[in-house]
Amino acid sequence: MKITLVYLTVFLTGILVFVSLISSAPSPETVILGEWKEMKWEYEKVNKSENKDYSSHETQEQAGQHLIIHQAENWTFLPGGKLKLSGKKNDKIVSWRIKGRGHILELKYDNNSKEHYNLTRLDGDKMVLNFESDMQVRGIAKLTFEKLL
Fold it and tell me: Domains in the chain, ordered, with CATH?
C-alpha cells in the first residue's frame, strides 16, 4: 500500500511540474509583439514557366505583386491585433491573429481579404514565415525576420 502511494505521489508531482512548465511558456501572441525587420526572402521551390529564367529579385517581384508584404520592410505587431507594415513609400495598418495551434498567422485587410502564412519559427529574436505562391511563379517563399530591440 505504501509503495502504491509513493508511486501515485511521484506521478502526480510529475504531472504538476509538467503542467506548470507548459503554462509558464510565453504564448505566440506575446512573443510576436514588437517590431520585426524583414531580412531576406528565399524560395524553396520555383517552377520556371515558358523557359524564363527569373532572378531572385524578379521572383520576389512576381510573387509579391498581390501581397502587401512585398512592399513592407518592417512589421510592427501591436497589442489588440493590429499590425503596422512599414515600407519605403508608405505605411499600412492591418489586423492580425494567430490561428490553429499557434502556427498560422492570418492578416486581414480593410476590404476583408485575408492572407495566411505558416509560422515556422517564432522566438525572441527570429521569425520565419512561409507562404505558397499560386501565381505565375509557383513556389514556396520563406520570409525571415529579426526582432528589433
Answer: 29-147 (2.40.128.20)
Q: What is the pLDDT of residues 76-130, one digit of tens each?
A: 999 999 999 998 888 889 999 999 888 999 999 989 889 899 999 999 899 999 8
Q: Looking at residue 32, what DSSP letter applies?
A: T
State the Cα–Cα distance between residues 111 and 146, nearest whole angstrom.
Answer: 29
The answer to whether the CB of 54 falls within 8 A of the CB of 47 is no
Alpha-carbon Rg for the chain in angstroms: 21
The C-alpha cell of 10 is what? Answer: 511521484
Q: What are phi and psi of 41, to 5 degrees?
A: -110, 135
Cell reading at 89:
513609400
